Every structure is written in C-alpha cells, then in structure tokens.
Protein: Solute carrier family 66 member 2
Amino acid sequence: MDEEVVLQEEDLEGSWTLLSWLASCLMVFGGALPYVPQYQEIQRSSNTEGFSTRVCLVLLIANILRIFFWIGKQFELTLLLQSVVMILTMFAMLHLCCTVQNTNRVSTKQHRLSDLDFRYFWKWSAFEDYLLFCFGFTVLCAVVTLLLLDSAVFVEMLGSLAVMFEAMLGLPQLLQNFHNHSTKGMSVKMVLLWTAGDVFKTTYFVMNESPAQFWVCGSVQILIDVAILLQHLSYQSRNMDIHFPPLMKAESQIKGK
Structure:
C-alpha cells in the first residue's frame, strides 16, 4: 500500500511538473501569438491604418523596463524570457509596418528620428530609427539602474512603471479605433487572443504569487480588451444600420410594384 501511495504521489508530482512546464512555455511565447493574425492582416491588405504602431511603443518600453526590474528583483525567469520574445515580436511588427508604409508612400518626403520633430514621433519612415530609439532608451535605463540598483524603492518603482506601461497596451489601439470611427484593418482575432492571454497570465501571476504589480496590470489589460471588443461591436452595428436602410427601401419599392 505504501509503495502504491508513493507511486501515485510521484505520478501526481510528474503531471504537475509537466503542466507547470507547459504553462511556462505558454507564458513565454503566448504573448506573441496575438500578433500573428494582425501581421497576416497587414500583409494581406498592404495597409497599416487599422493597427496602431504605438502598441509596439508601449510594449517595447514596458518589456525593456521589466528586464531591468528583473535585474533588481529576481522573479520568475519565465517572465524575463517572455519580455525578450515580446521585444523581438514588436520589432517584427514595426519592420512590416515600415515596409508597407514605404511601399504605399506617395510623397518622397521621409520623417527621421534625426529631424527631432515631435509631431512625427514614432511615425518615422525607417525601421532603423525605431531600433536607434530603443537602443538609446535601453542605455539610459542601464545607466540609471546601475546608479540606483541598491535602492529598493527605485527597483519597486521600476517594476511599477513596467507594469503600468504594459497595462496600457490596448489603449493606443482603443484611441486609434476611436479616431478612425472604425475597427477596419484591426484583427479581431488579435484582440480576442489578447483577452484570453491576459486572463491566463493574470491567473498565472496570482497562482505563482508574482509581485502584485503583475496581476494588477493583467486586470487593467482585461478591462481595456473588453472595451476594444465592445468598440468593434458598436462600429459593426453602426455600419449595418448605414447599409441596411437603402436595401430595405429598395425591397419595399419592389413590393409596392
């Protein structure tokens, strides 16, 4: 009997280890998955108007800050790897957007980081400018972190800033949709995957007793995701109201005849 109990406990422990490993893998690569349908949508339509590249800005800043937060406070390695994967994913999105925008560009005028024109901040024509900005921001963070690494207050503030930026992930897309009065060009699959991922990772943070900043961030993200989905339903409903009345009028005229 004792041997059976031991074997059952070992099997249970092995199953839990496997599930934990799968959850970690999902955490590392799951954050990048929502951008696959959006990437495909931009490739298919050759149009970037529906996707806000400021989503990339928010995520790049958030994940660079998170990496320095990890240096000051050694939390799960999974979250560090997630940040590296997310940074690479955002660079891939920006590279595609720059390529498409330059292909569609009518004017020969280009906007560069070196112009120092704030009106075109994060609207640069060359992908290299985005890399240069992120490199400069990383160097600045490295210098400040090196000087203040011994301060527990600074480290916690760094973590709070990282999750605050990440919590605002969907806000640029929300504002872009509001500005366009449409969600055309935005991948709804991306937002649905955002929502599923945010629910999963918030649960993961709570179960693994991650720093409180992480699950607070996840909760805010879920609320913004829901707001974007409601926005999509609202604009879709409005478009149906616009297109259906003429059709109904034509049908009534046919019946009258």
Notes: The mean pLDDT is 84. The chain has two domains: 27-163, 169-256. The longest helix spans residues 212-256.
